[in-house]
Amino acid sequence: MNIATNHIPDRVTDTQSVILTGDRTTEPLHLGHYAGSLRNRVALQHSHRQYLLLADGQAMTDNAATPEKVASNVLEVALDYLAVGIDPELTTIAVQSSLPALAELTMLYMNHVTVSRLERNPTIKTEIQQRGFERDVPAGFLCYPVSQAADITAFKASLVPVGEDQAPMIEQTNEIVRRLNRLAGEPLLPEARALIPAVGRLPSIDGISKMSKSAGNAIPLSASPDEIRNAVRRMYTDPDHLTVSDPGKVEGNVVFTYLDAFSDDPGTVSDLKARYRRGGLGDMQVKNHLEEILQTLIWPIRERRARLADDPGEVMRMLRDGTDRARKVTQETLDDVRAALGLFHWT
Ligand code: ATP
Ligand code: MG
Q1: Of 48, 83, 142, 287, whose CB is crowded by the most CB atoms within 10 A?
Q2: CA 246 to ligand 2 centroid distance, Å
Q3: Does the model's pTM come out above 0.85?
């Protein structure tokens, strides 16, 4: 398969607004990514200059002991991108750790953020708890919002399609941007806006936390038909909906949350909700409907992914191209920032 990338210019010279997002390369991507971000990215690549980062550097902040896992998932996540319809003709995909300008920007920005500000970040707080770090938080992990600020600003991105958990990162990025612009005395870097879809946070099937790779509760985009069926069967519904004729609760009912996220027929979903609330609609019936939707969504992704995985060399070539282009763009931004702040330069 030929994955060409030759139509993307090297410099951001036009007025098209720039999108930057990415994913940590810790595991293959899941339905939460699809609902929270990938779907938006596939749509937006036609109207925007889009960059996607395979965030292996950020993944290392809580996987330092297993770098080989982080490295091998670079290809896995790249396959997920291509399988859902990210087109390398329209979107530049780059490997974060191969862009040294990002690390340099992170170092510079860290001086503009306090430790207490980082500790107040609500997503970081939750993640520290989930990972059981307590007081032993790796410094890199606490600072990953700063590295995300470096990622976003290095591409001069103004739009960031992300799930709800990432909103505090964009806020933190903009605080840094405003500080640097004030120091530079010019609009050096653009502020960024988070683009969060209606389903900002897809829950895991138990409904307790967000579907997440590290929590081990994810339905991957390459899930087999059996995995999909089992996941839907195990989904949390209304525990008080004991018999079909009982009235049931839709709020907090994971099956309905998933229907909201993945059905393209909102009329049918609201009919099902009404019948469920009234009583007379069984969990199994709703689950069967959801399963059909998920099977239909995932099978073409799974098939395309399997085909692409047959030729990893071609995917690697595409990644190398994208990373080369991204290296130029990010180095230019670093040069601009250094000059605007008046950092040391060789004469
Ligand atoms: P990890 O557990 O390793 O942090 P993750 O599942 O949270 O993995 P990330 O790579 O951290 O995935 O997130 C990448 C993007 O996907 C972010 O924009 C994030 O908001 C979005 N995302 C991840 N999980 C969900 C979810 N359950 N619902 C909506 N968006 C999500
Ligand atoms: Mg995450």
Answers
A1: 83
A2: 38
A3: yes
